[in-house]
């Protein structure tokens, strides 16, 4: 009986000599511990994820607003630049002998081309050094403006440029045909010359030649250079100063939408059927290429800003997670003493930081989407958002949280149980 009892006792003690089983951490326990750690300090968790919210929100807003702005630029290009054709006077092989290749009736000829709304010839008048622009008949004082450019332009140029007149009106074909000494000026140039009203029929002087100001404009749809210039009839300038000298003439043509390429192909032959090689039409650039270029430039600039925001958010998560590790040293030591392994501690804090990054990514995606839609509604635009970007943004926040939690998680796993419990 004793031997049998001893044998049974020995059999019962045998399992005590076997090695203890290793501790495990299931995915469910890992997620519950991470949620508990986040909810334990909700205010800190919100502030920690705020950097990721701003970074991902800026990422979505930047890409969305860039795409939306590029679409609006494309639309405006189609309305204005896509309806503009320029014809340069090159003179061809006879450039030295033919200073002005455009015929006198160039405006009437170009309007006869199908798809053309208006067009006219212009060039910059080359003044002598002593010819200053002033508002008084004698002397160089009282509103003298010596560097104001003078543009010789037919009435068709003003029709194509479509200036907005605040006073008076544009000169017309009558002034062109009869070499009238009239001028239209931009509002800023008129103010520098001291011309504030047209009721007194003011005049300006280019050298010793007087020109009656018939219109003052403050904006143009095309040729913004006119705003800082004095514009006089082409025939008047040619009578007083001769044909273009140095800088050759050009023609500005406004067309109907979609007709610009055809007009560019037919303009030279319509203007000079005898020597079309004297003229070189320049069609508008491809709107898709312009949109792509503008979109790329804006995207690179603002994407850099969103990356900076994400880096700031990652630094915030890393800093806060590291502080949380230092505050929870006793908790980490107790877990290690109860059998938690180093990698369990690493996964716990890494999951917490990843969860904060994911929450920040989702909130930032919503915030950025609302920003794009709000700005588009305020400006009456059509919002443009890429679904792929919206799907990737939360994952970007998750990745930010993971990267930010690597070092704090590693620090937490290096804490020894004995040292932690002593604190």
From TrEMBL:
Keyword tags: Cell membrane, Membrane, Transmembrane, Transmembrane helix
Location within or outside the cell: Cell membrane
Signal peptide start-end: none
Region (Disordered): 1-22
Location of the ABC3 transporter permease C-terminal domain: 304-417
Principal cellular location given in the protein's record: membrane
Domain of life: Bacteria
Basic residues bias locations: 1-15
Keyword field contains Membrane: yes
Topology term for the membrane: Multi-pass membrane protein
Segments forming domain MacB-like periplasmic core: 45-267
One GO location term (cellular component): plasma membrane
Molecular-function annotations in GO: transmembrane transporter activity
Transmembrane segments: 46-66, 301-326, 347-376, 388-407
PANTHER family reported for this sequence: ABC TRANSPORTER PERMEASE YTRF (PTHR30572:SF4), MEMBRANE COMPONENT OF TRANSPORTER-RELATED (PTHR30572)
UniProt record similarity statement: Belongs to the ABC-4 integral membrane protein family.
Descriptive protein name: ABC transporter permease
Organism for this UniProt entry: Streptomyces parvus
């Amino acid at each position: 009986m004793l031997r049998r009892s001893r044998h049974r006792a020995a059999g019962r003690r045998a399992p005590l000599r076997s090695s203890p089983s290793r501790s495990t951490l299931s995915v469910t326990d890992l997620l519950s511990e991470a949620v508990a750690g986040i909810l334990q300090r909700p205010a800190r968790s919100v502030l920690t994820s705020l950097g990721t919210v701003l970074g991902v929100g800026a990422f979505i807003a930047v890409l969305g607003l860039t795409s939306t702005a590029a679409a609006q630029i494309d639309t405006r290009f189609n309305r204005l630049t896509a309806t503009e054709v320029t014809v340069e006077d090159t003179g061809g092989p006879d450039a030295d002998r033919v200073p002005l290749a455009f015929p006198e009736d160039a405006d009437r000829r170009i309007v006869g081309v199908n798809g053309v709304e208006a067009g006219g010839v212009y060039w910059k008048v080359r003044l002598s050094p002593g010819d200053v622009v002033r508002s008084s008949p004698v002397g160089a004082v009282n509103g003298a403006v010596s560097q104001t450019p003078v543009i010789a332009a037919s009435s068709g140029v003003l029709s194509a440029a479509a200036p907005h007149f605040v006073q008076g009106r544009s000169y017309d074909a009558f002034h062109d045909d009869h070499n009238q000494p009239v001028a239209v000026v931009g509002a800023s140039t008129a103010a520098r010359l001291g011309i504030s009203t047209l009721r007194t029929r003011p005049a300006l002087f280019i050298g010793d030649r007087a020109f009656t100001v018939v219109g003052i404009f403050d904006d143009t749809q095309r040729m913004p250079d006119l705003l800082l210039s004095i514009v006089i009839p082409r025939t008047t300038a040619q009578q007083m100063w001769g044909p273009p000298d140095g800088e050759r003439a050009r023609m500005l043509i406004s067309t109907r939408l979609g007709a610009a390429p055809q007009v560019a192909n037919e303009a030279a032959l319509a203007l000079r059927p005898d020597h079309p090689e004297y003229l070189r039409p320049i069609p508008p650039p491809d709107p898709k290429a312009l949109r792509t270029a503008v979109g790329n430039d804006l995207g690179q600039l603002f994407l850099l800003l969103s990356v900076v925001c994400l880096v700031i958010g990652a630094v915030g998560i890393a800093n806060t997670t590291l502080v949380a590790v230092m505050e929870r040293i006793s908790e980490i030591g107790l877990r290690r003493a109860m059998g938690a392994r180093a990698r369990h501690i690493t996964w716990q804090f890494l999951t917490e930081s990843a969860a904060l990054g994911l929450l920040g990514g989702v909130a930032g995606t919503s915030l950025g989407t609302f920003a794009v839609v709000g700005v588009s509604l305020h400006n009456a635009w059509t919002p443009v958002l890429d679904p792929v970007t919206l799907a990737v943004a939360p994952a970007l926040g998750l990745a930010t949280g993971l990267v930010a939690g690597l070092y704090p998680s590693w620090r937490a796993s290096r804490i020894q149980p004995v040292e932690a419990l002593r604190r």
